[in-house]
Amino acid sequence: MVMDVRVRDLRYFLAVAEEQSFTRAASQRLYISQPALSKQIRQLEQSLGTVLFDRDRRTVRLTPAGEALLLYARRLTEDWEAARLAVSEASALAGTTVRVGFQMRIGRGLIPAVTARMRQRLPGWKLMFRQVSWADPTVGLAHGEVDVAIAWLPVPDTGALSWRVVAREDIWVALAPRHRLAGLPTVPFADLVDEPFIALPRTAGAQRDFWLGAAARQSPAVITGEAETAEESFEAVASGLGITLLSAGNAEIYHRDDVVCRPVNGLPPSELAVVWRTVDTRPFVDVFADTCRACARPAAVAGQVGEPEPCAGP
Amino acid sequence: MVMDVRVRDLRYFLAVAEEQSFTRAASQRLYISQPALSKQIRQLEQSLGTVLFDRDRRTVRLTPAGEALLLYARRLTEDWEAARLAVSEASALAGTTVRVGFQMRIGRGLIPAVTARMRQRLPGWKLMFRQVSWADPTVGLAHGEVDVAIAWLPVPDTGALSWRVVAREDIWVALAPRHRLAGLPTVPFADLVDEPFIALPRTAGAQRDFWLGAAARQSPAVITGEAETAEESFEAVASGLGITLLSAGNAEIYHRDDVVCRPVNGLPPSELAVVWRTVDTRPFVDVFADTCRACARPAAVAGQVGEPEPCAGP
DNA sequence: CGTTGTTATAACCAATGGTTATGGACGTGC
DNA sequence: GCACGTCCATAACCATTGGTTATAACAACG
To answer: Do A6 and B11 touch (CB under 8 A)?
Structure first.
């Protein structure tokens, strides 16, 4: 029987070895419960066929077998870290993948069209999609988790990011079916200003404000919950905890029976854009952005020339 | 997010890289289904944030990132193998663990008694138990998987193994509840000779013969199934596929409602022994064997002086 | 056009990895 | 001696992961 260790098992082992305590290693280094750690170490011992720790009620000490594993555990975890770095570098240098960040489902036929176009313009390249939480307003661009992003504006307007609009849509509101406004065909935003809202995380910045309708407010919104993903947001709405704004297209894409979506009057439309780091001169980034724009609906891009526009935030 | 790879993931990756085919790697190298392999490689790619294989309907080729991982994957799998060997050697040399092999549950109060005694005689040592299949008549001793074993005789009588009897028990038979002999208080073996038996694996050798009642047979047994563990054997008996012999103590230990056990007349008793490699001079092996004998029931060891006795095999 | 071979995806179930609750052993302080 | 706190192990339970079979889509070939 070949026992295939997981680097995490080795991290667990190292934590216990260094802390000399299951409880402290679990709670202070690994952030798991003590029984989970006890169980994992026991399994590792059984797989290896030997005891790695001498357990005394007061102390946990490495056995000679445990000492032997200690050296290897350190080496293996370091080697794995080096492997990940090598893979990341090779990927970036060889450039066969475009990593695309997104916060909400893209839909709108955009990705199939872009994928087909990219296949012609950059043969052999692949698109890899990464969902990023609303907590990161740069949609993974700031820390290089992705190469490009498909994001709802506004994104941080510091000049670090550039974008082109690929869709423009009216604002809708998501309500619980029993909400007093659920029966209206259209909802004036004035009727929503005092409603409890489900907000984006604070770190979302201007995006949070936009989706609270800040452009049409004179005072802060009433916030009864925060959500990091659209899924979390809809769950909160369905439970009656609050309401949330969304684009018309997303009202359709995220349709569900336990949430009612209605058009809202009195708010500026929302815009979906392809976003990239301004300093990123890698050719595939341009190709991707151009391709997205070429695949966008004509009405969405009229009048937008790719320059950052003033933020409507408070 | 720290991604903790498992050596098995790397083995999967290496198999695909070398076969250049998911289907062949899955079925011929890894013995898993193709979709499972597809899913695991996809997950590895997502965790690393890059594509490792360019997939074409006809071929699977490594990307540059995949090539980078290839080197590390080989190194990590080799390092892990070296780690396991180092641990095994350290364990054996340092000697803080007695690995005890067994094929059937030991019971009979033996292990608690032995554990307590060993704690006094070898402070700091631990017992680690390994269940070994009936396919290995040496109960893990031949290949060094264990240091000592608690096994039902006969074990291979080549001189390589030594043993001391710790329990002696009459033979019982396990029958399906609806079996024609299930209602008898005691069953003569003559009534069982033509019954279909569940046998031990062929590789079990003399043990297989013993538990088919070879000592009282003139012709081969009728065998309708084989089992590698007691659990498998009982399942087959309960399903009506055949019958099996067992010791009196095990009839009690393995009691279950869907199997009837009855004493058998006409067969020599069975013997449970502590077994070790004759050439194994490590002191803890002697200590363990002595301790087992000291804890055995007096009636079991009368007349047994620890020498290998003639095998009753056919 | 039909057949074959390949990888991906879906639905489902088994196995693994986590949680909280509890137990037993030990040490310390009163 | 008793009460309490600390520590690791175990049990019961649930969520997540890893496997299966079935199926779909696509490309190549005859």
So the answer is: no
Q: What is the mean pLDDT of residues A168-190?
A: 91
Q: How far is CA A94 from CA A124, A274, B22, B67, in A?
A: 11, 23, 24, 11
Does any strand C atom come closer than 7 Å to the Cβ of B24?
yes
Cβ of residue B96 closer than 8 Å to a chain A Cβ: yes
pLDDT per residue as tens digits for the range B42-52: 989 988 888 89
Our CA angle for B167, B173, B174, nearest 5°, is 115
- The amino acid at residue B68 is A
* Residue A311: per-residue pLDDT: 29
d(CA B288, CA B269): 25
- Going A174 to A259 to A138 to A167, the CA torsion angle's sign is negative
Structure tokens belonging to residue A119 = 């296949």
Residues 35 through 74 of chain B touching chain A, CB cutoff 8 Å: 45-46, 48-52, 54, 63-65, 67-69, 71-73
Q: Closest residue of A to B126, CA-based?
A: A51
Q: Encode pLDDT of A76-109 as tens digits.
A: 998 998 898 888 878 776 666 787 888 888 877 7
pLDDT, position A41? 93
Report the 10 Å Cβ neighbour count for A53: 20
Could you tell me the domains of chain B? 7-92 (1.10.10.10), 95-168+271-301 (3.40.190.10), 171-268 (3.40.190.10)
The answer for residues whose C-beta is within 8 angstroms of residue B195's C-beta and 6 or more apart is: B222, B242, B243
- The answer to whether the complex's ipTM is over 0.90 is no
* CA atoms within 13 A of residue B88's CA, in its CB half-sphere: 14
Query: Which of A54, A64, A94 comes nearest B63 by C-beta?
Result: A94
Nearest of B187, B311, B191, B295 to residue B246 by alpha carbon: B187
Distance CA(B48)–CA(B36), nearest Å, equals: 18
CB atoms closer than 10 angstroms to residue A162? 19
Calpha distance A232→A308 (Å, rounded): 29
The amino acid sitting at A10 is L
> What count of other Cβ atoms lies within 10 Å of the Cβ of residue B278?
13
Query: How far is CA B98 from each of CA A1, A195, B83, B88, B165, rounded to the nearest angstrom?
Result: 20, 69, 20, 12, 19
Separation of A282 CA and C5 C1' (Å): 38
The SS3 of residue A226 is: strand
pLDDT, tens digit, 9 for 90 and up, residues B240-270: 888 999 999 888 878 877 889 999 999 999 9
Residue A94 belongs to what H/E stretch? helix A64-94
Nearest C-alpha neighbor of B253 from the set B114, B98, B111: B111
Say if B86 is an interface residue toward chain A (CB within 8 Å): yes
Q: Which of A11, A79, A94 sits opposite B79 (nearest CB)?
A: A79
Q: Where are the beta strands (DSSP E) in B132-241?
A: 148-152, 161-169, 171-175, 187-188, 196-199, 222-226
Residues 6 or more apart in contact with residue B10 via CB below 8 angstroms = B73, B76, B77
